[in-house]
Amino acid sequence: MSCYDTQHPQKIIMKKHTLAFIDLETTGLDPTIHEIIEIGCILARQTQRPGRGPLVEKIEEFDIKVKPEHIETATPEALRINKYSEGEWLFAGTLEQAITSLAPKISGAVLVGQNTPFDLSFLEVAFKKVGVPLDINIFKIDIVSLAFARYYDDESMQRFGNYTLCERLGIKNEQAHTALSDIRASFEVYKKLLGA
User: Fold this and answer.
1) What is the dihedral of CA 129, 130, 136, 139, to 10 degrees?
2) pTM here?
3) What range defines the domain where residue 60 resides?
4) How many angstroms separate the CA atoms of 101 and 10, rounded?
5) Which among 48, 7, 33, 46 is positioned nearest to 141, based on CA atoms?
6) Is residue 112 classed as helix, strand or coil in its secondary structure?
7) String of DSSP letters for 5-26
8) What is the number of structural domains in the chain?
């Protein structure tokens, strides 16, 4: 297979694209019945520095709370872990508002995150539901996979979740399981894994 896509050549040259670090909090694990209730995002650019590690620069960060439409389908465990409360989500926007705001910011970007297949599955359903095309790069970077490769021969590393990686790399995540705090931690983990 060729590494050049003649139909979408702009989507192949990954190094010039924005990196969209995204973390979602949801009402459960199944994107067909559960909902996104929070989106944390950091937009960044990565450039190479001759003789040194890459430079990963933050462009923008934001947090979007989304009011669930069907809270009755939520799992109590997910709501507890994600610290959901009606009071905290009182002024949250609709899913349509969230996706309409998010879409232009991540257009053409490379999705980066902790367990990107999970977040991507929810994003695909949400974008389709509101009728907005999900225009992201064909490349995705999963931090868990990067860490697994980096620590493959390290017997002391048996788990590769955000908590374990933050502990290993000396990164504080003050408000774990809130979208913006988690993606800030993932952003720092990514930089340390790359030696940035």
Assistant:
1) -10
2) 0.88
3) 9-143
4) 23
5) 46
6) strand
7) -SSSGGGT-GGGSPEEEEEEEE
8) 1
